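Severity: low
Component: inverse-folding endpoint
Summary: output formatting inconsistent between runs
Steps to reproduce: submit the following C-alpha cells with default settings.
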C-alpha cells in the first residue's frame, strides 16, 4: 500500500481569480498620465517643458515609461532634455 504524500503548508495567501485587480499601476503612472493628458491639449509644434526636479526617478526612467505608454496608446512622442528640463512633444505618425 502506497503512502500518501504529506501536504506542505501554503507559503502565500490565495484568493479568487475574479477578485484579482487587472492592470498594472507602475511607479511612474501619475507623471506619465499627466504628460499624456497635457500632450492631448497642446497644438502641433508645441512642446511641454517639464522641470527635472519634478521627476523623482530621473529623466531616463520617465522617458522609458512615457515611451512605453505612448506606444501602447498608439501614439508617437519625442523627447529632448537639457540640464534642467525634459521636453516632450507629439510627433506625426
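Observed output (run 2 of 3):
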Amino acid at each position: 500500500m502506497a503512502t500518501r504524500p504529506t501536504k506542505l503548508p501554503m507559503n502565500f495567501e490565495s484568493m479568487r481569480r475574479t477578485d484579482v485587480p487587472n492592470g498594472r499601476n507602475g511607479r511612474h503612472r501619475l507623471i506619465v498620465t499627466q504628460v499624456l493628458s497635457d500632450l492631448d491639449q497642446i497644438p502641433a509644434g508645441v512642446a511641454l517643458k517639464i522641470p527635472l526636479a519634478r521627476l523623482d526617478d530621473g529623466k531616463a526612467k520617465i522617458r522609458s515609461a512615457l515611451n512605453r505608454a505612448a506606444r501602447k496608446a498608439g501614439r508617437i512622442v519625442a523627447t529632448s532634455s537639457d540640464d534642467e528640463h525634459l521636453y516632450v512633444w507629439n510627433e506625426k505618425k
